[in-house]
Specification:
Blueprint lengths: L2 H12 L2 H12 L2 E2 H5 L6 H13 L3 E6 L2 E6 L5 H8 L9 H12 L9
Antiparallel strand pairs: 1-3, 2-3
Amino acid sequence: MTNTNALDTVFSALADPTRREILNMLLEDDMAVTDVAEPFDMSLAAISKHLVILAGAGLISQEKRGRVKWCKLEPDALRAASVWMQGFGQFEPVNLDAFERFLETEFSETPADTPE
């Protein structure tokens, strides 16, 4: 896959809010596919399609442990996209740790005691 195709695949995968939420969930720890699917109001087959897209983009990896399929976030997966964005000069270098914290904040649920 050429670098342009790889970037297209990553940005395409990130374009979907369900896939971004899955990545956010995987920031915490590896998860079984059934655990990934649990909070979503969609079929396991639909979640599996999202996971295939994320894996195809290199954003996650999957492995079978016994009878259970596990998903793991690939920490360096966004490096090429970060380097590409930096090439425009309009963006400061992306600190991946800061980006991870941003994602955690952005996708965390609103606390119940916070007025909307």
